[in-house]
Design brief:
InterPro entries: Clp_N_dom_sf, Clp_R_N. Keywords: Hydrolase, Protease, Repeat. A two-stranded parallel ribbon has the order 1-2. The chain is mostly helical. It has one domain: Double Clp-N motif, CATH 1.10.1780.10. It has ten helices and two strands, in the order αβαααααβαααα.
């Protein structure tokens, strides 16, 4: 199927893998595809996304918050049960060694090799299949970043949907992407 991917969509998939690795994810999910698309889409789609505030920086910020926030809070809750206040530990470390020291140390711990390819999650595979269907439905010979984002939208993954709907409704974005595809045809 990847032989049918256009330049922007191929780059989006490669960047999705890098985003997943940077976030220490075990699999490439649709949310990583969204991050890849936000970096590599066609100029028209990037303009559309930027117009609703969906930039690579905003997507990365949300992904980072989802990746680290839940883990930190669950660790804090576990340690609190034995009398350790992780929030207080963080404050003291940052006060003593400088702002961000605690978070930098936590993000570096347990780092794994950035080499090798990650597999796609089932929802990401589904989004890729749906992207192909979108291209076929629009009588396009290649799968572009627009089709890829439409595939993510149709897949309905909760995390990817939350990334998108924090900026724009799925229906409005879908409609605008289809308009972009129609203009290009």
């Amino acid at each position: 199927m990847f032989e049918r991917f256009g330049r922007h969509a191929r780059v989006a998939v490669v960047l999705a893998q890098e985003e997943a690795k940077d976030l220490r994810a075990k699999l490439i999910g649709p949310e990583h595809l969204v991050a890849g698309i936000a970096q590599s889409a066609s100029r028209e789609l990037l303009d559309e996304l930027a117009g609703v505030g969906m930039t690579v920086d905003s997507v990365r910020e949300q992904l980072g918050a989802n990746a680290s926030g839940a883990s930190f809070e669950s660790d804090a809750d576990a340690l609190k049960s034995i009398g350790i206040d992780l929030h207080r530990v963080r404050e003291r470390i940052n006060h003593t060694f400088g702002e961000g020291t605690f978070d930098d140390a936590v993000s570096d711990s347990g780092s794994r090799s950035r080499r090798g390819n990650l597999a796609f999650s089932k929802p990401a595979k589904e989004a890729l299949k749906l992207a192909l269907r979108e291209a076929v439905a629009h009588h396009d010979s290649t799968i572009d970043s627009e089709h890829l984002l439409l595939g993510v939208l149709r897949g309905g993954d909760p995390l990817a949907s939350a990334l998108i709907t924090s900026h724009v409704s799925e229906d409005l974005l879908r409609s605008n992407i289809i308009s972009l595809l129609d203009r290009a045809a």
